[in-house]
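Whether sequence alone determines local backbone shape is best considered at the level of individual chains. In the encoding step, the backbone of a single protein was reduced to a row of integers, each denoting a local shape. For completeness, the protein is quoted in full, as a sequence line and a line of structure tokens.
***
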Amino acid sequence: MKANDVRNYPAEIAREITLHRNIDSYTDSHPLFRSSVQLFGEGRRRYAGIVLDVLYDHLLSQRWDNFCDIHRTEFIQRFYRALLAHQEMLPEKLRLIAPRIVQQDWLGSYSELEGVERAVTRISQRLSRNGELLREGLADVRVHYAAMAEGFEEFFPQLVRYAGDRRSELMAEAV
């Protein structure tokens, strides 16, 4: 989604899209995340952020009850219902794959490392070049899984605080 595309959405959705972008920037620049990037092989570091993003989805899925009172399965089902109910608002590419996301339970599959591997493979197929470097990053994940998980454990509570604070700031700006 392009930066100016948020203007095409209701204010609440535009704010959440902006928050998501802020979260991505915070994550990509965070020292703990950057430290995990260094665990990837020399030629694969350029794509390590993508692999780590998916791995962090897996790690969150594994530790869900530590961060959310809503059962993970219920949360995912709510998301899928909202996704399908609002398909007309989605960017074209997402609109086209939304039914497949639900049918194949992409979010639920992140609870297993195999789900991470499938997700990274799907992403690599959408890259115009160097998709193999993205897939090769999975070997680095297998070798350094424990260290990456440890980094996530320290990072994620900081991200939760940041996201809460940033959401509050964005809501205050809207008033």
Summary: The longest helix spans residues 131-174. The helical segments are 11-29, 31-37, 45-62, 72-85, 92-103, 106-109, 113-126, 131-174.
